[in-house]
Amino acid sequence: MNKELITQLPRVEQLFDQYAERFGKQQTAYRNHVYRLVNLVMAQRPVNDEELGKLQVAAFFHDAGIWLAGTFDYLQPSARLAEHYLQEEGLEDWSQDVRTMIMNHHKPLDQTGLPQCGLSSATAEAERPATAQPALAPLAHAQTIKQPPPEP
Fold first, then answer.
1. Residue 134 lies inside a defined structural domain of this protein
2. Residue 64 burial by CB count (10 A; 0-12/13-18/19+): exposed, middle or buried?
3. What is the residue range of 69's domain?
4. Is residue 65 part of a domain?
5. pLDDT tens digits for range 57-90
6. Nearest-10 crossing angle of helices 75-88, 49-61
């Protein structure tokens, strides 16, 4: 397992170059967020080249709808933007996996690494695309656990 932090990936950098104007002053913060996400996923398990490609696309677009579609109801727009990008790149066969990662990236995981969607793990596994990998679907967000304020 690679223990060095990943700070540059070709596809992610190309996408940031393409959309630099749309992110404006927030591009550095979002770039850092994307790479934290990539490193978190990569720390869970090694990925092959195709999975890394899918991860780059999903990581870039997972919250991008906030800036690129101008909405905080961004999951669907983010997934659509990713699908459009994949179509332009001739990578339509990645669409379902990338969409799954984006749409489920806020859902907690169960013990199998699948999102808790109100389905049993067996049902979720049966409904998941055969090519999706548990550690990649969904993207895992590092979440800060906030402690409740002390009672007076």
1. no
2. buried
3. 10-127
4. yes
5. 999 999 999 999 888 888 999 999 999 999 999 9
6. 130
